[in-house]
Amino acid sequence: MYLNQFLLLAAVLFCLGVYGVLVRTNAVLVLMSIELMLNAVNINLIAFGAFRDNVIGQVFSLFVIAIAAAEVGVGLAIVLLIFRNRADIDLDELAQMKG
Amino acid sequence: MVAQNVVFGILAVVMVAAAFRLVTTQNVVRAALFLAIVLAGAAGLYILLAAEFVAWVQVLVYIGAVVVLLLFGVMLTRAPIGRDADLDNDQRLLGALVALFMLGALGAVLLDGFGDDKVGEFSIRRTAEVSDSIFGAYVIPFEVSSILLLAALVGAVALARRD
Prior knowledge:
The complex is a heterodimer.
Chain A: H1 3-23, H2 27-52, H3 56-86
Helix pairs in contact in A: 1-2, 2-3
Chain B: H1 2-24, H2 28-48, H3 52-76, H4 92-113, H5 127-135, H6 139-160
Helix pairs in contact in B: 1-2, 2-3
């Protein structure tokens, strides 16, 4: 197995996540796209860990998983708060802070 | 090695197809289910790279918790459950261009940097080795991440509660 096949697959997934973040208007869908990007990073970490034959890649990916769980919890709380205040989570409509 | 490449090919095709549908589907619940497929494929890749503990953490935390949390988010925000053509903004072409440019740049760098490197013989890392590393060299980041999780928990409750 080439190292690159894992890295290129992760790059494809990451770019699809970037596309999702740029294009989606629903905040929950944007959070899903962010999870996709974090997952691509995790694949990279595990692949490099196997490439170097050490355990550090796995440890780092566990940290990434923990922080992603925290991120999605806080992110959904913010989305819920926006929904409660505006009855809408369309990100294109969120322009109150625009000068 | 041939069997591993076949498994990788199947997983890669399924993951890329599901990720593509995730960012293009017009149904929010289906998007969450496609995300679950991508995450399961990633768990398969971790097994392929002999990272069994991370694979099971992936199944438990991502598929078990994060996807369910996202589905709860869909439910609580009353996102359109059925088919709704208004989930994308009008920047599709621009977004696709940015993503393709990024893919090209990343691919060129990866092909240039790791052209012929092989994931050769790697030893199977047992859970004990992972935990020895977490509770040995990385114990301070581990404690910091537990504080972060606590802060996120309290923050999420404080944000979401009605008062």
